[in-house]
Amino acid sequence: MKLLSVIIPCYNSEEYMRNCIDSLLVLNRNDIEIIIVNDGSRDGTYEYAELYKKQYPGIIKTIHQENGGHGEAINSGLKLASGRYFKVVDSDDWVDREAFEKVVKTLKYFDRKNNEIDMLISNFVYEKEGASQKKVMNYNKMLPENRVFEWDDVKSIKVGKYILMHSVIYRTSLLKEINLSLPKHTFYVDNLFVYIPLIYVKKMYYLSVDFYRYFIGRDDQSVNEQVMIRRIDQQIRVNTLMLEHYSSFVDKIKTIKLKRYMYHYLEIMTSISSILLINSGTTQDLAKKKALWEIIKEFDELLYYKLRTRFLGMLVNIPGKLGARISVGVYKLSQKVIGFN
Predict the structure, then answer these.
(1) N or C: which end of the chain has fewer CB within 10 A?
(2) What is the pLDDT of residue 334?
(3) 71 Cβ partners below 8 Å, 6+ apart?
């Protein structure tokens, strides 16, 4: 069995995928496998993937499939993965060499001790194009370091410091045991990839290294605000699936800190969906915002009440055009102060 499977979902990625793959090949270890998933690309992605596979047999595997979206690429990679642990690295991102060495060394330690962890968490860096300083997302004041811990050991996680896909490496067998399957043709499923397995995670380890480099700057990038508004139906879909998951399992979650964390993650997602719909300003999108909150109320009235009466819920539901300007203004300020994208 391999130690670590790294999945690289690719769609028309010929311009930047080599930087991503090369950053993962610096260790040249046979206990790591890299699975390049070509998700129906129409450029040179196929040729580059096959070239790397030929150059690194036994390390690089390739999957070529009809376009199914980011989630389906992860689904396919998970089916093929033979590593004890599972990591997703998007094709326009990359990893830091020294941090990668420490990550592998840590996973190797647990492998030798036959003491599997469910999730390893590390830092990531916003590689924002044009930014003079790179913002590091770390969890130093929130998670215990240098020891295995459980949810009861976690300190309060601040707004803007949520555990994202860039931060996590999951135990592969955990993802397969819960039959993790992400929706096809849907953006923003990275939130589901992190969120759904959380209730099954017992043993965690935080390694404070700046491992993942998250590139932000392409006009067509999914996290570009105007792109998100155009794809708002997919954001709402992910938001709703998170709502369904939370409501289905909330009564079974015995650990208060995990329950609180999952609630706050859902709160942030709902607030972002609402702000994007407000920022769009169209009659149709404002109607979608109203419908989203009605769905929450119909699904779980107590959850609706909690979300609606807290600061963020009140902020995104201030009536009128002035209310819309206030909501968007606070959101923009939060982006600058907290530094999230």
Answers:
(1) N
(2) 64
(3) 182, 183, 184, 186, 189, 192, 193
Q: What is the DSSP letter of 61?
A: E
Q: Under a CB-based contact definition with an 8 Å cutoff, are residues 43 and 12 in contact?
A: yes
Could you give the CA distance from residue 3 to residue 335 in angstroms, rounded to a whole number?
37
CA angle at residue 104 from 102 to 106, to 5 degrees?
70
Helix (H/G/I), strand (E/B), else coil: 111: helix
Residue 330 pLDDT: 73
The structure tokens 């060394």 sit at 105
Q: What pLDDT score was predicted for residue 27?
A: 79
Q: Rounded to whole angstroms, what are the CA distances from 112 to 107, 146, 169, 171?
A: 9, 17, 18, 15
**Residues of the chain falling short of pLDDT 50:** none
Kindly list the distances between the CA atom of residue 312 and the CA atoms of 166, 240, 297, 322, 327, in Å, as whole numbers in the listed order.
25, 18, 16, 16, 9
Q: What is the largest CA-CA distance in the chain?
A: 61
Please, which residues have CB within 8 angstroms of residue 252's CB and are 6 or more apart in sequence?
199
Give the ranges where 113-224 is alpha helix by DSSP (H). 172-177, 190-195
- Cα–Cα nearest to 85, from 205, 175, 194: 175
Q: What is the CATH number of domain 2-216?
A: 3.90.550.10
Position 321 scores a pLDDT of 81
- Domain residue extents for the chain: 2-216, 225-338
Residue 49 sits at φ, ψ, to 5 deg, of -60, -45
Distance CA 249, CA 266 (A): 13
Phi, psi of 189 (to 5 degrees): -75, -10
Q: What is the pLDDT of residue 54?
A: 97
| Residue 266 CB partners (closer than 8 Å, separation 6+) | 242, 243, 246, 307
Q: Is the pTM of this model over 0.70?
A: yes
